[in-house]
Write a structure and sequence with these properties.
mainly alpha; 222 residues; 9 helices
C-alpha cells in the first residue's frame, strides 16, 4: 500500500512546519524541509515540470531576498541572506506537497469529516469548483453574443465580468430552489458517500514532527 498522508494531517503539518520555519533561522533546516518535501513529491510522482516552473518563477523573489539581506542587512549578512532565500523554496515545497498530490474536493471533505469544517462552506466550495468550467464556457458565450450585436468584450473590461456575476447569481438562485425542492435542510443530518480514513498513527506523526523542532528552538533560546 502506498504511503500517503491524509489531507487533514497534511494541511496541519504544513501549518505547523510553516510556523517552525518562521522561527528557526537555520539554512540546514530549510534545506531539510525542502529535501523531504521534494522526496514526498517524487514518491507520489508529482509533475516535476510544474515544480521546476514554480521554482523558476519564484527565483527573482528569492534572489531579491538574498540581495536585500546581503547588501542592506546587519550582522551575519551572508548567513541571513541564505536563510531567507532558501526559506522561500522551503515554503513553496511544503505547499506543493498538498496542492500537487491532493484534489480540492478530497481536501474539503476530509476537513469536514475530521475538523468539522461547516458543511455549508464545504458544499458551497465544491459547487463553486464544479461551476468553474461552466463559467469559462459562459465567458465565451457572452463574448460571442456581444460580437453578434457589433460589440467586443476583452478580458480587461469590467462589463464582461459584470455579466458573468449576474449569470452566476442566477445559477445560485436556481440551485437554491432545486435544493429546497428536494427537501434540503441546512442543519439536517448528512450521509457520507465515502468515509475518509485517518489512521491514529498519523496524528502521532503530526505531533512528533510539529513539537520536535519547537523543543529544539526552546532549548536553543534557554
Amino acid at each position: 500500500m502506498k504511503f500517503k498522508l491524509n489531507p487533514t494531517i497534511m494541511l496541519l503539518l504544513l501549518l505547523s512546519q510553516g510556523l517552525c520555519l518562521a522561527f528557526i533561522k537555520s539554512i540546514s533546516y530549510n534545506l531539510l524541509v525542502l529535501l523531504l518535501s521534494l522526496s514526498y513529491l517524487a514518491y507520489h510522482k508529482a509533475n516535476f515540470k510544474t515544480i521546476g516552473l514554480v521554482f523558476l518563477i519564484t527565483f527573482p523573489l528569492s534572489l531579491g531576498s538574498f540581495l536585500s539581506f546581503y547588501y542592506f542587512g546587519q550582522g551575519a549578512r551572508v548567513y541571513l541572506a541564505w536563510i531567507y532565500a532558501s526559506r522561500i523554496y522551503a515554503y513553496l515545497s511544503l505547499g506543493m506537497m498538498l496542492t500537487l498530490t491532493t484534489k480540492i474536493d478530497v481536501l474539503l471533505i476530509s476537513l469536514e469529516q475530521h475538523l468539522h469544517l461547516p458543511q455549508a462552506f464545504v458544499y458551497g466550495g465544491l459547487a463553486a469548483m464544479n461551476m468553474l468550467s461552466r463559467i469559462k464556457k459562459q465567458l465565451g458565450v457572452i463574448k460571442y453574443s456581444a460580437q453578434i450585436r457589433g460589440k467586443s468584450y476583452h478580458y480587461y473590461q469590467p462589463g464582461l465580468y459584470l455579466r458573468v456575476i449576474i449569470t452566476a447569481l442566477t445559477w445560485s438562485r436556481d440551485s437554491a430552489q432545486a435544493m429546497r425542492a428536494l427537501g434540503f435542510v441546512e442543519k439536517g443530518p448528512r450521509t457520507q458517500e465515502k468515509a475518509d480514513i485517518l489512521p491514529k498513527w498519523q496524528w502521532a506523526f503530526l505531533g512528533g514532527t510539529s513539537l520536535l523542532p519547537l523543543v529544539v528552538v526552546i532549548f536553543h533560546w534557554l
